[in-house]
Amino acid sequence: MSISQRLLERQLKSVGLSKESLPTNQASWESFLAKINKAYDEADQDRYLLERSLSISSREMQERWNKLHSSEMRKNAIMISSIDSIISFNEQSKIIEFNPAAEQTFGLSRIKALNTNIRDLIDIKINENIFGDRIEYEAKKASGEAIQVETILTPIILEEEVIYSLFIRDLTEQKKSQKLINDQQIKLISSERLASLGRMASSIAHEINNPLSIMVLALGRLKKLIQRQVLTDEILLNALNDMEDMITRITKIINGLKTVSRDTKDFVKEQISMRLILEDVLSLCFERFKKSNIELRCDLKSKKFDKCIACDRVQFSQVLINLLSNGFDAVKNLRVKWVEIDIEKDDKFDIIKITDSGSGIPQAMQDQIFEPFFTTKDIRKGTGLGLSISRTIMEKHEGSIEIDQQSINTCFILKLPLIDQERV
């Protein structure tokens, strides 16, 4: 068989024909050739589509590679330039990325950190409930020094594994600064408390001197009766009872002074009856109000003052003293002069109201009175820190201090969270 014959048979076979199926007349040949031309056209079209597909796939692969390369470059740029530490680790807790900020934070080079266990630095708990949350941990530097850090854990889910990225911020300096601020705040609160007591010093001294003077007179009278030999058991008993009352009165004043002036660095909440707190406070300022003919409306025998509140006794007493002192200054020159203390509660808070006979605080001033150093008093009579410090103390109690907008008189409202068993 010649080469031309073999080629003819191969071409015939490619279009599904055989030598025996060749046409025998002109009409059949025309139909035969049309089939062959159609077959070649379809083959050319398939080849074109295949070449186009290969061309697009190649271009898409190049684009994807460029995007991947760009993404990798961006990731590396973020890792290198971030001021926060970034550590990536796998499901076996082995570190696979350790950026320059992490090197500085932990005092550990990237080379030494790679493939070590993340828990050698931070004992992190992997839990889907904490993903994306800010959580503080105590971390350990390469030197063994403990540091406080804030972290955010993010999972990166790949086809074959999960990678975790841990974003870390060193809180060491922030904690030091916060401690310094807290220490200064405590000193400021203590200074203002002592300043308040200083302003009441003369009335406190008078409150102590009065019963002492009465006891001295009583003792002098008893001595004379003894000398005249006319002292009876009844007279002696009455005198001793009077002196006992005076001693009790002095004791309350001194105990109140000791409680309110106690220097406490720690904020300590306790459950205590409102009556005990008011006894401390009123023992220090009652005489001052009395001398200025200001009615102090607070019946300590009322059952409502049996109410227990949760507070730091010293600091909450300071808030009451500040408000009573402000009330005193506000009404001392009025025709009708009184200051009232009341207590009630709602579903969430114990509510203590300190109201005076003043006509309220001007609206324009209400936004300013809680700012530090704002005062309407003479510079020698006030520091402008009383209400600012009072607000700070109430916020530490998770409570508040506010002005009663509904009262026709000047009224401050103190809110303290209810003791747990009282919550509705």
How do the helices and strands line up, and which of them pair or pack?
Blueprint: H1 3-14, H2 26-81, E1 85-89, E2 95-98, H3 100-106, H4 110-113, E3 135-140, E4 146-157, E5 162-170, H5 172-199, H6 201-227, H7 233-261, E6 270-273, H8 274-291, E7 295-297, E8 308-311, H9 313-331, E9 338-345, E10 349-356, H10 363-366, H11 386-396, E11 400-403, E12 410-417
Parallel strand pairs: 7-9
Antiparallel strand pairs: 1-2, 1-5, 3-4, 4-5, 6-8, 9-10, 10-12, 11-12
Helix pairs in contact: 6-7, 6-8, 7-8, 8-9, 9-11
Please explain how this structure is put together.
With 424 residues, this protein is an alpha+beta fold. The protein has helices spanning 3-14, 26-81, 100-106, 110-113, 172-199, 201-227, 233-261, 274-291, 313-331, 363-366, 386-396; strands at 85-89, 95-98, 135-140, 146-157, 162-170, 270-273, 295-297, 308-311, 338-345, 349-356, 400-403, 410-417. The chain has a 5-stranded antiparallel sheet. Strands 7-9-10-12-11 form a 5-stranded mixed sheet. Strands 6-8 form a two-stranded antiparallel sheet. A hairpin with a 3-residue loop joins strand 9 and strand 10 (349-356). The mean pLDDT is 77.
Average pLDDT number: 77
- From the helix content, strand content and strand pairing, which structural class follows? alpha+beta
Architecture (CATH level 2) name of the largest domain: 2-Layer Sandwich
Strand order of the largest sheet: 2-1-5-4-3
The total tally of domains equals: 2
User: Globular, elongated, flat, extended or rod-shaped: what is the shape?
Assistant: elongated
**How can the largest sheet be summarized?**
5 strands, antiparallel
Supply the number of helical segments.
Answer: 11
The N- to C-terminal Cα distance equals: 107 Å
Which regions are unreliable across 5 or more consecutive residues at pLDDT < 50? none
Rg: 44 Å
CATH superfamily descriptor of the largest domain: Histidine kinase-like ATPase, C-terminal domain
Count of extended strands: 12
Please write the CATH class name of the largest domain: Alpha Beta
Percentage of helical residues? 40-55%
